[in-house]
Design brief:
By secondary structure, the chain is α+β, with helices and mostly antiparallel strands. Among the domains are: about 1-115, Roll (Nuclear Transport Factor 2, Chain: A); about 260-390, Neutral Protease, domain 2. It has helices spanning about 1-10, 15, 25-40, 115-120, 140-160, 180-185, 240-255, 270-280, 295-305, 315, 320-340, 345-355, 365-370, 375-390, and strands at about 45-55, 65-75, 85-95, 100-105, 125, 130-135, 170-175, 195-200, 225-230, 290, 295. The strands form three sheets. Strands 5-6-7-9-8 form a five-stranded mixed beta sheet. Strands 1-2-3-4 form a four-stranded antiparallel beta sheet, covered by helices on one side. The radius of gyration is 23 Å and the shape is elongated. The termini are far apart. Bound molecules: zinc ion.
């Protein structure tokens, strides 16, 4: 496994590809594509280790087959604060000349598998100071023509953030208009979306018993994220529309490292998560400049009515696009109200508080009290009154 990683680092394509069973031409080809793709990514570090072997090493004689979970611990320069981990499931056999990989697939805990470098025959990679843009052939031109805009979107989000250090340093963005590929990438699980931010788990801390790879995962937070955007809707529209989706996803990725994921919460406070990303990406627009679902805010609001409560998690991520769309809208407006009444810096502090206490069921109520000096009920009624008079 060390020689496999060394082959990547030492630019030894033959050794990297040579682990694949030569009797499996498709696998050999994919292995070559993976090598070529990985060479384009600005990695600060990239190592492979075996996490677990199923099949028993004692019975692992010549001709025997075993399933191996392989960790790919890697850190993209300018994007990851610390190494993150992707996992593979390898099927290996012991041949006359040593171990050969006969199949590569998804392990039970995927941890971001498959990444774009696993999925795209020839990855386009364009880098700027704060972004690493990856694309397949459907969006290669888009990646090149929008790279400067993505860098501006990143700088926009960073320039607005007043919540202090600890954000992601930059963003990895994958672009495709291949819907199947978009839905499959990073095992993202948000099939109805057009843009998604996927948190990436930390690589396990190195253990004294090098090579066993069974270190404990530092799971108090996700050190980084990966963004994917379906470019289908953005190729022939005003570039400002694409900038909104990039600013939105980058906002998620920027503050993901703050989220406490050390335990499970009863709810995910999605109106805070999505409302903040919506507000951040569109805060420079006045209400009269904004469109929702093609309608002005005023006509959209007239159709859907004034809010009676803050959107629930089930409403925000509803599979009913009308419910989900209006819940994003109400979440966005709640943040806009918060910025109007308390100031933009309080919005950042509010969101930071909720992220840092995300495992507590009362974190929204506590943030209302500790950051805004109000109660959730008071906030909600103030929001409803503001909504009726301002939108
Ligand atoms: Zn979002």
């Amino acid at each position: 496994m060390a020689s496999y990683g060394a082959a990547l680092k030492g630019k030894n394509r033959a050794a990297f590809v040579g682990i694949a069973d030569p009797k499996k031409p498709d696998l050999v080809k994919k292995q070559g594509q993976l090598y070529d793709n990985l060479q384009k990514i600005p990695f600060k570090s990239a190592t492979y280790s075996v996490d677990a072997v199923d099949g028993g090493e004692s019975t692992f004689a010549q001709g025997a087959q075993a399933t191996v979970t392989v960790n790919f611990d890697h850190q993209i320069s300018g994007v990851d604060k610390e190494p993150v981990e992707e996992r593979y499931r390898w099927t290996v056999v012991r041949g006359a000349t040593g171990l050969l990989v006969t199949d590569v697939g998804a392990p039970s805990q995927r941890r971001g598998y498959p990444a774009p470098w696993d999925s795209v025959p020839s990855l386009t990679v364009v880098t700027r100071t704060h972004v690493v843009v990856m694309a397949d052939d459907t969006s290669s031109g888009f990646a090149k023509s929008h790279a400067d805009a993505l860098e501006s979107d990143a700088e926009y989000d960073f320039a607005h953030w007043t919540g202090g250090s600890g954000t992601a340093p930059g963003f990895a963005v994958f672009l495709t208009s291949n819907r199947t590929l978009y839905q499959d990438i990073y095992d993202q699980g948000r099939d109805e979306s057009v843009g998604v931010t996927v948190p990436m788990p930390a690589a396990p801390a190195p253990t004294p018993a090098a090579g066993t790879g069974s270190g404990t995962v530092n799971s108090a937070s996700y050190p980084s994220s990966r963004i994917a955007v379906d470019t289908t809707h953005y190729k022939n529209v005003d570039p400002a529309d694409a900038d909104i989706v990039f600013k939105h996803e980058m906002t998620h990725a920027m503050i993901d490292p703050f989220e406490d994921v050390s335990g499970r919460s009863q709810q995910d406070h999605l109106w805070v998560v999505e409302g903040f990303a919506e507000w951040e990406s569109q805060r420079m627009y006045s209400p009269t400049e904004l469109l929702y679902d093609g309608a002005s805010l005023h006509s959209y609001a007239s159709k859907h009515g004034a809010p009676k409560a803050l959107p629930t998690d089930a409403e925000v991520y509803s599979s009913n696009s009308d419910t989900s769309g209006s819940s994003y809208f109400y979440s966005h407006m709640a943040m806009r109200y918060m910025a109007d009444k308390y100031g933009p810096e309080k919005v950042d502090q509010f969101v930071l508080y909720v992220y840092k206490h995300a495992t507590g069921t009362m974190c929204v109520d506590d943030a209302m009290k500790n950051v805004l000096g109000t109660s959730t009920d008071q906030f909600t009624s103030g929001y409803a009154a503001w909504f009726r008079s301002s939108i």
